[in-house]
Structure to design on (361 residues):
């Protein structure tokens, strides 16, 4: 799978002195290696010919050349007095600094993906339930949700990037999961919530995207097509899960749960990379997400609650751009909201679905 690339606004927010080079099909941002939060191994341009071809395109761009001058002053020794250099000399110095690793040339998305994805219309679903035949109403709204949600979630998922039709439904810890076998990612997780008094299995969670064991490393060597390929794979496999994410998906992620541990959610299929600000409740939206999770924890003497957690994707990775979360008390009371799941450089939405909420009360 191709690596996830952060968009230009996100990277510009992290590196305010970075220099953005906008090309027809992509964007490059030059950032100071000394202050970089990642090696950007999978998203950097490393070969000299490519760097030269790109930078020479901008040799007459006054704004770009002045931005590069600032980078040369602050970060490298390739130009002792860059303010005295011509535009051509600045570009040559930048090429040398980039090849030497003093400046990173990071490939970024030219703009965040703005495609809106349809939310599950829970209010319309409730209206359909009330107009259904008496036998359906007698079975209850939650039974109606178990019957209707798989189709609705699959229909909504089919509009997303890289979705396949190889979707299976399985039960894990009492919750229903829809899983795209072709794209290897969760489509939705839902069910009547419960209370889990047990402690987290920290050892197993640590293995989620953890370092590879000796057996895994040996298998990687045997499966590699070349010695160089084996070295590249081993280098990545030996990274910690967080370092691996820094290289492939950007920053600020936790091991999130589609269905929280306290609600009785499990591990494995239930784990996904979740934006830490949301998962830990550090922002206004994060606090709302945590409150909705807590509302789903079953309580003694209180009617059960139905929960649906639905990731929204806008590329071919398994990292959602957003998470639609619904807490359903009854057909008359439904709360739902979409939470961002990508670093946004100050924007509210994670490059995709709108931040929205509803209540049928």
């Amino acid at each position: 799978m191709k690596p996830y690339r952060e968009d230009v606004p996100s990277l510009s927010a992290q590196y305010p002195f970075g220099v953005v080079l906008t090309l027809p099909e992509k964007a490059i941002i030059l950032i100071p290696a000394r202050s970089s939060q990642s090696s950007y191994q999978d998203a950097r341009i490393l070969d000299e010919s490519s760097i030269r071809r790109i930078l020479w395109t901008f040799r007459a761009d006054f704004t770009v050349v002045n931005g590069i001058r600032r980078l040369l002053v602050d970060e490298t020794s390739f130009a002792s007095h860059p303010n005295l250099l011509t535009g051509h000399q600045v570009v040559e110095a930048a090429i040398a600094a980039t090849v030497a690793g003093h400046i990173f040339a990071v490939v970024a998305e030219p703009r965040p993906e703005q495609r809106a994805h349809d939310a599950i219309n829970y209010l319309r679903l409730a209206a359909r339930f009330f107009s259904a035949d008496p036998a359906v109403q007698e079975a209850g709204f939650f039974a109606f949700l178990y019957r209707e949600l798989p189709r609705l979630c699959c229909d909504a998922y089919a509009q997303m990037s890289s979705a396949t039709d190889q979707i299976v439904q399985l039960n894990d810890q009492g919750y229903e999961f829809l899983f795209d076998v072709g794209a290897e990612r969760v489509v939705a997780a839902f069910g009547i919530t419960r209370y889990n008094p047990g402690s987290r299995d920290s050892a197993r969670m640590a293995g989620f995207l953890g370092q590879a064991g000796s057996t895994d490393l040996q298998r990687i060597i045997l499966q590699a097509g070349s010695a160089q390929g084996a070295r590249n794979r081993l280098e990545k496999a030996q990274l910690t899960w967080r370092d691996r994410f820094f290289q492939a998906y950007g920053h600020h992620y936790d091991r999130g749960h589609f269905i929280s541990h306290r609600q009785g959610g499990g591990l494995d299929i239930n784990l996904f990379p979740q934006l830490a600000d949301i998962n830990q409740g550090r922002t206004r939206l994060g606090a709302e997400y945590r409150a909705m999770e807590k509302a789903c924890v079953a309580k003694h003497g209180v009617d059960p609650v139905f929960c649906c957690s639905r990731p929204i994707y806008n590329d071919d990775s398994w990292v959602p751009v957003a998470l639609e979360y619904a807490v359903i008390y009854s057909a008359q009371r439904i709360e739902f909201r979409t939470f961002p799941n990508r670093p946004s450089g100050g924007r509210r939405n994670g490059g995709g679905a709108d931040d929205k909420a509803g209540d049928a009360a």
Summary: Residues 173 and 266 are 6 Å apart (CA to CA). The longest strand covers residues 322-330. Residues 204-209, 345-361 have pLDDT under 50 and may be disordered.
